[in-house]
Amino acid sequence: MTHRVLRYGVIIAAAVAALWWIPRYVGTQGAAAPAGDKAAVATPHAADGHPDLSGLWNASAPREVQQVDEAGTVITSNNIVRGATPVNAERDAALRRRMDPNRPIYKPEFWQKVQNLDYNGNTEDPTFACMAAGVPRMGPPSKIVQTSNEMIFLYETKNQFRVIPLDGRAHDPDKSQDLTLMGDSVGHWEGDTLVVDVIGLSDVSWLDIHGYFHSEELHVIERLRRDGNTLTYQATVEDPRVLLKPWVRNPVKLQLSTDPKVVLWEDAPCSDIDLPHIVDKEHH
Amino acid sequence: MRTKAFAIVAVIALSLSTTIAPVAQGGAPSASAPDLKATLRNAAEALVMLRGAEMRDSISTMEFWATGTMSVVPQGYKPGTPLLAFKITAYHGAIGYDPPGGMRVDFTRTNPNGAMPQQQIHVVAGKYAWNEAKYGMNATPAMETANDRLLQLWMTPAGVVKAARNAADKTKVSVEGGKTVLTFPVGTTMVKATLNARNLIDRVEARVNHPVLGDTALEATYSDYGDWNEAGYKSDVMFPRHIVQKVGGLPMLDLTITKTNTQNPYVVFPVPDNVEKAAASR
Q1: How much is the pTM?
Q2: In total, how many domains does chain B have?
Q3: Shortest CA distance from B18: residue in chain A
């Protein structure tokens, strides 16, 4: 009896403690590590006078825990869904992922292809079989190391990196023909904005999750700008073979992690075991 | 014992989830004093448009396929005889609700005896309207149809909810014959939508300027709502299986939906250059 009371007591205490702790943990981690008051933080500059983009940007924050309100209540849609059922959660998430009105405008002869790829995304999306997303789908870097003549982009996902020369060189004629997932990148400054020009991209990757394929004529222009402890990343996609006009992707804003204890996590090896078990077309 | 312990934790977790998940529930429309905000929310919830923690309208695009009949008023019409009803062997509607709104209707109709199949593709994108000889291609400006086609877009069930919400304080809610009624403008046209007991849009009316009949009533009725996406691709979004349109009380369109894609599919309406030029020259 005593053991039973003690055991229940411990369980209940642990549950209450967890409930007390979760919102606070989320509040400090999920909404990005403390970065200070944006308005009060000046943009640091490197010795050459350009903004210093170095740092860890939004990395190592739990990805499935996203937002809390002022009262510390979790409001992320990961936790609250219609009827609180997993099926509804996945249906809602898939629907909401596709509701962004900022879509690439493909030539009409490719509309059906985009639809088919999206419809069959569970088996057609190259990243579902552990392939890297590639530029520009991989998005902004998790960490930037800046030197006077190059930028080093580190990505938490799949432990990838890019080295981008800033010395004014042209694209490497060989690498530009290699057609890889990250292509050949060269960078330069336009005022306080870092501009990265990327070509030589393989057409096996997608621009985004919704069947947004591209051709080997893909040309990506990435722009990164730091304002205080906020980094804004935006990519423009040009692919005259399949797109009617360039597609300017939505900007992504990242906060600098100022916690010295936060480090770039090593991503776990990808070993796909899901594909053989997917039995429908719903996206997950 | 372990089961009981887990049950206790589960109860606590459930109480937490109910504390942090204040998802509003739609209620039956009030017969006496319907509230506009609640009415719009109830209508949106009935169509299962609201998703996520914020219960945000998450419907952006959709497609539907149908077969049925189409009558061209007053073609073949004389008093006491039925209208000439063309068979619609294929009907594909692609809708984009994001402002300014767009819709592409691609249908093939035959004579009542099944002969003379004829494909037509009608498109509207905001203030622009055109016809296409091939899907997405070979556009011919049809600017004079833009308002009518936009009206068709905003008379769809989800379109009604969105248009009524976008009209803000110009939207009125009332009760007629025990049913909740929304009245709102689409451009210069007033639209009246009637909700059924489940808060689903079952009737939409508007006054249109018909080329033959003049100022007359356009009426759409919707019935047999369900999720008509393919098995394995369900979204839970409600769409009517049966759509009937009448103009001046005469049957104009009778569609039976064969399939929908309400997963916000890739649907776009780039305005062709020649259409933009035609619009600029008007």
Answers
A1: 0.82
A2: 1
A3: A80
